[in-house]
Amino acid sequence: MTISTHKIFLVCLFLMYSFSAYTQSKTIDSLQRELQIFKDDTNKVNVLNSLTTLLLHNQSLSTVSKKSLFKKGDYSKEIQYSNTALDLSKKLAFEKGKGYAYKNLGWINHKLNNFTEALKNYHAALDVWKRESKTQNIAETYLWLSFTYYSQNSYPESLKNAYNAIGLFEKLGDKLGWANCFQSIGNIYFDQNNFSEGLKNFNEALKLRKEIGDQQGIGQTYNSMGNIYFGQGNYPEALTKFSDALEIFKKMGNDAPEWGIPWSSLNIAEVYVRQGQIADAKKNKTEATSKYSEALKSYFEALRIYVEIENEGDIIATHLLIGSLYVKLKKNPSAKKYIEKAIRLAKASESKISLRDSYMILSYLNESEGNIKDAYENYKMYIVYRDSLLNDENAKKILETKLQYEFDKKEDLAKTQQEKKNTEAKRIKNLQYFAIGGLGVIVLAVLLIATIQWRNNKQKQKANDLLTHQKKKIESTLTELKATQAQLIQSEKMASLGELTAGIAHEIQNPLNFVNNFSEVSTELVDEMNVEIEKGNTEDAKLIAQDLKQNLEKINHHGKRAGDIVKSMLQHSRSSSGLKEPTDINALADEYLRLAYHGLRAKDKSFNATMKTDFDVSIRNISIIPQDIGRVILNLITNAFYATNEKQKQGLENYEPTVTVKTQKPPLGGLGVCISVADNGNGIPQKVLD
Amino acid sequence: MKILVVDDEKDVQVLFEQRFRKEIRDKEMEFVFAFSGEDALVYLNQHKHEAVLILSDINMPGMSGLDLLGQIKQKYMKPPPVVMMITAYGDKENYDTAMELGADDFLTKPLEFNQLKEKLKAIR
Q1: B18 → chain A, closest CA residue
Q2: Contact A231/A209 with Cβ under 8 angstroms?
Q3: Do A609 and B61 touch (CB under 8 A)?
Q4: Nearest CA to CA, how far is A540 from chain B (Å)?
Q5: Separation of alpha carbons A471 and A53, rounded Å
Q6: The pLDDT of residue A421 is above 60
Q7: Is it true that the peptide bond before A666 is cis, omega within 30 degrees of 0?
Q8: Which residue pairs from A284-292 have beta carbons closer than 8 angstroms and sit at least 24 positions apart in sequence?
């Protein structure tokens, strides 16, 4: 497992968590059109961020695949969109827009290997999400940070952030995110050959994935666990895990990710190859051949699917693996067939990695045939591509260095062989024997290297395939999300009413109590009145009539009260039209005072305070946006109640918590209305006043 | 039977006096009204053992009905008056707290007076 494994998670994460106001069910075209239409408002920010997300997503898909539409590494558009989104968000103080823009910029910089810059961006995003208390986004950002640190080889930091993310996903009950954290931590440990820790984390991930029935994730984790066992040399167990993974993916049928079955098959093949090598070392030829045959079977299964899904990179890599194996099985013609095909395909897609690997294996194949000239020529080609790649890829420094070492060793060996063959022409028999022996070692190394290289490549391919899958999954998920989003915005509003709702329930039940009961009792009174009239007791009847009238007035009054409460509730839930309307400010303040009080009482039964009002009844209706002003008043009142509650908790004797809401014309004259909320709490600390 | 009704809504008095007019007229029941927990305690202090039944709202400004309940059940022990809570908040939390504090019954608004009358008959 290499850094590129983490890239899988990086892009997985990116896809799964890059929500924005607009979903990815819209195409790039339609989003770009919207960009023209929208004014400079928050919608535009959302479009910009979504566009960036989509473009980055498509960029990730571009590889050696023939279908690559975008030039590799050109992120100018995404950078432009993100910066515009960021600037606009800053102007509009649109925190969410800032957060997503920073995330996108972090992602871009990460891909460009500007790790310091990426970290800066992610930290900026983190600040935004912390301010906005968006726990989900905070958790995801920690995971982004984890991957960036990993790419930078800062493992302690990487782990720290992954653990931060875990804590939050656990709190959120987001088992998917939680599992991904464990998976990613497991990979970090695996990469450092800390197999026990790696396994521990993969087990945690597996547990969670099973709980949520994340079949794909389970398959993925099984493969990861298989890799651990492979790393520990526990091949039977590795085989079990890889087979389990294969089973899972096969069961998923059409729902399985493209890379699922082939990846698992290749892992299985790897185990068989290793077991074959061990058998070879023990000089157990039958065992070795049988293991290699099993490996071949798995290779072919993987190849079949890669061809089906037209995954160039993996097709080439698998050809090379098969070719190498045929070399091992001493089936040179077959080996040549596959290796030469690999070279053809690699040249067509201009894949340096594949060409490097192909030439190396071809070189050794030539050598085994005694074709020294071609062996040397092909080996030179291998060096050319190897060096070229070394210059290109900084991010794979570690692995390249490892490989460099291996290659250098083999290079030396090969050079030694060459020299020996050249100078000791007479000792051809011994030379051949030595060459074959060397070849045996070299082919082993080649297989190992090819495997690592291929794995390297495979991981990239896997990342891309994972993306394709994720993209499809996301598209359907986000279609739902779009529908849910509208509801969510509503329920957010309703959630913010949560504090008031309890108080409102009380508010409404009281007038309802009167409406119901007074009407019932009035019906009875009418009967009584009729009895009195029958009896001729006009005076008594008149008295009852008086009561009746009073009752009806009370019904009217309480009914209106309930109606006002409902109206104010609806006003909260309706989005602010931004229009001013003539409002009775006294009634508004009174309503919010009572609502705040009852809401707080509902939340905290120990809370109580005396409410006082001092309304200037001469104030007529004023032209305001009632929801907005109401919200301000509500906040002031809530703070006032809070302050008194705090002071009351101190347990002072004779302390009567009191909040007074007062309306008056401005004391110093002038237009407008002065609304004041006073409390006898602890007051503003002197420190703050200063 | 003397009944103390505690509720911050003034119309509650009018309502009770109308709904129980027969019982009041026949001197079966006598109602006293307090508009806050504090007032209720003042009354109970001044008229010890007179009220055998207390009907109290829960959510009131100042002392809540539950606070009042606690006070009554602690101070006015022998014999303790029957206390029934009447409230708009029919949630489990309120119910449990009321029961824990020793409430004898728990009614929710809007009040069903027929139901209430049944319960009151059972007390006598």
Answers
A1: A521
A2: no
A3: yes
A4: 14
A5: 11
A6: yes
A7: no
A8: A289/A329, A292/A325, A292/A328, A292/A329
- Cβ contact A609–B63 (<8 Å): no
CA nearest neighbour of A383 among A365, A364, A401, A408: A408
* In contact, B9 and B28? CB cutoff 8 Å: no
- The CA-to-CA distance between both ends of chain A, in Å, stands at 58
Tell whether B113 lies on the interface with A, counting CB pairs under 8 A.
yes
Token pair of A218 as six digits: 């389970």
Whether this prediction's pTM lies above 0.90 is answered by no
Pick from A388, A266, A381: nearest CA to A319 = A266
Distance CA A224, CA A352 (A): 27
Cβ of residue B89 closer than 8 Å to a chain A Cβ: yes
Its sign, for the CA torsion B107, B108, B111, B115, is: negative
**Over the stretch B34-59, which tens digit does the pLDDT of each residue have?**
999 899 988 888 887 777 889 999 88
Question: Token match 């597996």: residue?
Answer: A206
Task: Give the CB-side neighbour count of residue A141, counting CA atoms within 13 A.
Answer: 27
Q: ∠ at Cα A649 (A648, A652), nearest 5°?
A: 55
Cis peptide before B110 (omega within 30 of 0): yes
**Structure tokens belonging to residue B118:** 């049944």
The pLDDT value recorded for residue A393 is: 58
d(CA A420, CA A437): 14
Q: Is the peptide bond before A333 cis (omega within 30 degrees of 0)?
A: no
Give the position of tokens 């919608």. Answer: A43
Q: Is A517 on the interface with B (CB under 8 A)?
A: yes
What is d(CA B121, CA B124) in angstroms, rounded to the nearest whole number? 6
Place of tokens 């995330």: A103
Q: Is A512 on the interface with B (CB under 8 A)?
A: yes
Measure CB to CB from residue A554 to each of B14, B63, B89 and give the nearest one: B14
Query: Amino acid identity, residue A265?
Result: S
| Option in B15, B64, B113 nearest A605 (CB) | B64
Residue A202 φ/ψ, nearest 5 degrees: -65, -35
How large is the angle between the packed helices B11-19 and A538-573, nearest 10 degrees?
A: 130
Task: Work out the angle at residue A331's Cα, subtended by the Cα atoms of residues A329 and A332, and round it to the nearest 5 degrees.
Answer: 125
d(CA A649, CA A646): 5
ipTM: 0.85
Rounded to an integer, the average pLDDT of B102-114 is 88
